[in-house]
Write a structure and sequence with these properties.
The complex is a heterodimer of chains A (about 80) and B (about 230). Chain A has about 80 residues and is α+β, with helices and mostly antiparallel strands. Chain A is built from two helices and three strands; from the N terminus they run βαβαβ. The chains are: A alpha+beta (about 80), B alpha/beta (about 230).
Chain lengths: ~80, ~230
């Protein structure tokens, strides 16, 4: 069994109030030097057997169909 | 013949009973529809109600979009034939289904907003707003945590230019929505989505006004007149 990771992030132009709240907490906690935080999602997709190009293409299709809303989010697919 | 308006129940729908009641008060026959049945039961129009379908897992409306019922609803709605009103979670489902452009994201305040909300009707040229006057202010209920409407500038400009902004928050957006947009329509005017809840403002006893009833009487007028949604 192999694992494919899909990272989903809000597009840069979309406001991320959660990320902003986390950045605010960083400075309150004394983590100086944190300028900005963006929050995203990570999906770990386990697939049967070895990951080949066809399976990777399947996961990519899954990502754009369901895991990400490409109107507001970007995603990256990689073998873990 | 009485118009039959379907109200869809998904797992986690909250406001299906209120929506059905509003349909009834407007003089139409509410028809319960179940998410798992790929059957619209021949209804003349459909309301996708508010709530937290599938627990809002993944994204609001993202799972509901793939419900068996939606496979019947989406083509009928997209063609302009079937009037569909999405309220709150229903609006999120319409955006996830790409029946409406843009998306709903977390309120800019990160707080759930629950209040009586004044809206300005910007378009009376849809299947669901024909009984209002353009520029009319109405008072309904807003209750959502992910109600901030976003779309790219090009899409927003197109919505404005084609009269598809249906309702706007009067006095500024309470949730960070771009251009104070509270609700929009598709290009045919048969599909309308909005975050506020007209179905909670249909009776003096329980709502801040009865202004919301107009959405439901509008579709009834449209169906009775037998005129198709404008092209």
């Amino acid at each position: 069994m192999a694992r494919v990771v899909v990272d989903v992030m809000l597009k840069p132009e979309i406001l991320d109030p959660q990320g902003q709240a986390i950045a605010g907490a960083c400075s309150r906690l004394g983590f100086e030097g944190v300028e900005r935080v963006r929050q995203g999602k990570r999906f770990e997709v386990e697939v049967e057997g070895e990951v080949d190009d066809a399976k990777l293409a399947d996961v990519r299709r899954l990502a754009e169909t369901l895991l990400a809303n490409t109107v507001i989010e970007d995603f990256e697919v990689r073998v873990h | 013949m009485t118009a039959r308006v379907g109200v869809v129940t998904f797992p986690g729908s909250l406001d299906d009973k209120d929506a059905a009641r509003a349909v009834g008060l407007a003089g139409a026959e509410p028809v319960p529809l179940w998410h798992a049945d790929a059957d619209l039961k021949g209804v003349d129009a459909v309301v996708l109600p508010g709530g937290f379908s599938y627990g809002d897992y993944l994204r609001c409306g993202a799972i509901a979009r793939f419900a068996p019922l939606m496979s019947e609803l989406v083509p009928a709605a997209r063609s302009g034939a079937l009037p569909v009103l999405g309220i709150c979670n229903g609006f999120q489902i319409l955006c996830e289904s790409h029946l409406l452009p843009g998306a709903l994201t977390r309120n800019s305040s990160l707080r759930f907003v629950n209040r009586d909300q004044a809206l300005r009707v910007e378009s009376a040229d849809t299947a669901w707003t024909g009984d209002y006057a353009e520029g009319q202010e109405i008072l309904v209920v807003l209750k959502s945590g992910e109600g901030s409407y976003v779309a790219d500038e090009e899409t927003l400009d197109e919505l404005e230019a084609t009269g598809r902004v249906v309702v706007r928050y009067a006095g500024g957006s309470p949730n960070g929505s771009r251009r104070d947009i509270a609700g929009i329509a598709n290009e045919h005017g048969n599909v309308v989505g909005l975050m506020p809840h007209p179905e909670h403002a249909v009776e003096a006893l329980t709502g801040p006004s009865t202004d919301g009833l107009g959405f439901f009487t509008s579709v009834l007028s449209r169906l009775t007149a037998g005129t198709p949604a404008h092209a």
